[in-house]
Amino acid sequence: MSLSKQLAKHIREVNFGVNWTWVNLKDILTFVTWEQATTKVHDFNTIAVLVFHINYYYGVATEVLEGKPLVGSDKLSFNHPPIESEADWQNLLDKHWTEVEQFAAMVEELPESLFWETFGEEKYGNYYRNIMGIIEHTHYHMGQIVMIKKLLNLQLAG
Q1: CA distances from 154 to 46, 48, 150, 151, 157 (A)
Q2: Does domain 3-157 sit in CATH 1.20.120.450?
Q3: What residue ranges do the domains of the chain occupy?
Q4: How many helices and strands in the chain, by DSSP H and E?
Q5: Tens digit of each residue's pLDDT (9 = 90 or more) over 70-128
Q6: Cβ(141)–Cβ(135) below 8 Å
Q7: End-to-end distance of the chain based on CA atoms, in angstroms?
Q8: How does pLDDT run across 124-150, given as a tens digit for each residue?
Q9: Distance between CA atoms of residues 108 and 6, nearest Å
Q10: What's the CA gap between 118 and 115, in Å, rounded?
């Protein structure tokens, strides 16, 4: 399997399932209500903020794959639109699943030589580093979401 196909597979697996950790974002977000997604636990980010944050970087990277300049800001990556209903929450999730698949499909088609070229600017490293970084970033925040869900369940059990 080519590197591009392997990375695209890994992107899909961390988001949709059947990866080597047996944990994926879609499964852990199934049955999370909009109220749970927006409930603050301690000083942690909410689940909704983390989903928006994860998705933000897929969007930034997709634009680079489309040939646009790398434009992104960590400050902006936490500023999601208000989630005030189940429909708002489902719209955020649907946006994420759609954009992840778009990103994976684009990665799948990349020529292998591109992985070693500069991703936007020299300070960001190469395409491989950034694509793997997005996968690792998803795993990292997915772990936070799992812990927040457990804390929310403890609060409900009370």
Answers
A1: 16, 19, 6, 5, 5
A2: yes
A3: 3-157
A4: 6, 0
A5: 999 999 999 999 999 999 999 999 999 999 999 999 999 999 999 999 999 999 999 99
A6: no
A7: 49
A8: 999 999 999 999 999 999 999 999 999
A9: 8
A10: 8
